[in-house]
Give the backbone structure.
Amino acid sequence: MGRVRIGDHLWLNLSRRSQCDNCVYEVCTHNDGGRVEDCPHFVPAIMALKLCCRCGEVYEVSSNFKALDYELCPVCNSKVFIVHV
């Protein structure tokens, strides 16, 4: 479970297991019960937008559920641990 600060006194709890755990649908016909990392039918329960502290891009918080650093957008999160030799 990840906890993301989206306001001065407002936090959003995100499940890190599957994107379906953070979706508004109770019963989804597109989920076979496995771990879902990217779903074109995903609808967040709460639409929360944040500004990436590295690149300045605005991103939707719930779709960034696999992030190691919730202050960064998905693109910057994927670049954080790439080691260039």
The chain has a mean pLDDT of 80. The beta strands are 2-5, 11-14, 49-51, 58-60. Helices lie at 74-80.
